[in-house]
Amino acid sequence: MLGDGKNATTPELADESSVESRSEADMSGSDGAQSLGVSFAQEQTSENGGGCLTRWRPWSRFADEAKGFVYLYAARGGPSVYAALFANVALNEFAYSVADCDGTVLNGSMQASSVVSSIGVVAGILTAVLSPIIGTISDLTPRRKGIMGASYVVLLISILVQVILFISKDSDKVDPDDSDSMLPRPVAQSSAALVVLCAAIVIKTLSYESAALLTSTFAPELATDDKEVARYVGYAYLLMNWSQLFCAIVIIAVAMGAGFDSFQQAVMGGVFVLIYCIIYFVPGYRLMEARTRIDPTFKRSWCGLLHLGETLLEALVRYPDLIKFFVSWSFANAASTAVSVLATSYLQNYLGFDGTTTSALLALALLFSVPGSLLVPRLSRFYSLKTTYVLVNAFYGLTFTLAPVVFLSDEVLVNDANATTVTTNYGFCDEFAVEASNETQFEARGYVFYLVICFCIVWGVLLGGIYTASTSLFSALVPGGKEATYFSLKVTLANVLTWLPSLAYTAINEAGATRWAIISLGPIFLVAAVIAAFINLDKAKMDIGSTLHRRQGKVWAEHKSDENEKTATSC
């Protein structure tokens, strides 16, 4: 049951003594994954020498909570790719279906083509504002697990609402792109339905971000060793990225085979994603333990605002290296979240690739983000988490700095179009005039396509690595007992500079230097790397050492029990 703090497979954690009294039988099957510092190869050969299942699903041997953590990340993969590849496309079509002849919707309040971007702005602002509130409430109440579960449930409901509103039928208008077929129109074709759909998508984004935030707060409590935490986080992102790729392949394959339009693809994809998400969410949620202990020194008045303010002041005064991370990640996240959008614009507008080719290249990057998720755990065997994070950002920055140097295209003339009157896909308009024009477009040189493939592979690997690196490093820096509050601050501060890459790209593009527009991402990643290089990881760990007794979860309870036994023995 969501929100009750209960766990069907693991008893509720009420205090440390309840953990100490657990039987050996209750902990069987998870000893290998909980042994700190045990290498991946050792886990492969432990317990009957491993096997095919362990080689392909190493998380099956993790401790219960680490396994649940990985499953919850996998549950988010489907909704993430659904929004990016299918729901936004169908939303755009929905907006056009209720547009007037001037291309506006909602009584001329905005262009139909601006609906998707406007929704993104609203959702981004609300996420930045609400995340600290959600994090603070989670730290000040014994309901962190319950709020996380409720976020996943709201996420599923919002996707279901989208599926219902995307149900369509053929209209009485000929498709302007295919004279042999009719334009599809949603059954609920009205401005009111568009408003409901936009609200559902905003709620979906907020619930997704809340679920992501609260799931991440469990990362520091999965192990007492930073590199062990990095390994769990790496596999969590591995399975999430794989889920994104798998859902995208299945939905696109079925849609192409059945000849689905955008609405039908969104409906079928939404149903598939709902099922896929539930398959991982239910066992993942059951394996997570409730966090019921609250430090009595935390200030709970003013609905947690005093606690939030105290935490901000604490970070500024006591944890300077945490502040350095916040600043660095605000740059890195701004650039990484803009990669797909700006790369799409660059590939189509400067290199002249069509939509199918661009989608294929982005899918290639998504494919390589799967093994990229394991980049950080592998590198952390040789370098510190800070160095790994710096390297990922530095390489990312260098590739985008190099890209416009080697990506060359030529401007060619587009064939003239005769002035004519054509059918429009604006839903409440029948036709409009198109005048003849002499337009030019960019066309990539022959060898560039193969270079772009190589760059997309590298970008995919780094995309899979950068989020693993940031979550792993932050888990090593965050004080105990306030994981949710600090992770929520990370989310909020990460959105502070999200406008910067798009603004820089647009400014360069509007200046007529389209070729160099993509370079705008390079310096942002490099600035993130330089700032992170000044983080003193050893000192940061010493700074939070006095707070680690507040960490919850079975691993930390057992660690504290072992420490107490050692102290008693030495005395």
TrEMBL record:
Region (Disordered): 1-32
Cellular component, GO annotation: endomembrane system
Keywords annotated in UniProt: Membrane, Transmembrane, Transmembrane helix, Transport
Organism: Hondaea fermentalgiana
Transmembrane segment boundaries: 115-135, 147-167, 187-206, 235-260, 266-283, 326-347, 359-376, 388-408, 447-467, 487-508, 514-537
Source species, domain of life: Eukaryota
Protein's UniProt name: Uncharacterized protein
Ribonucleoprotein as UniProt keyword: no
Compartment(s): Endomembrane system
Predominant location category: membrane
InterPro entries: Atg22-like (IPR024671), ATG22/LtaA_families (IPR050495), MFS_trans_sf (IPR036259)
One matching Pfam family: ATG22
Record flagged with keyword Hydrolase: no
Membrane topology of this protein: Multi-pass membrane protein
PANTHER family the record matches: AUTOPHAGY-RELATED PROTEIN 22
Similarity comment: family membership: Belongs to the ATG22 family.
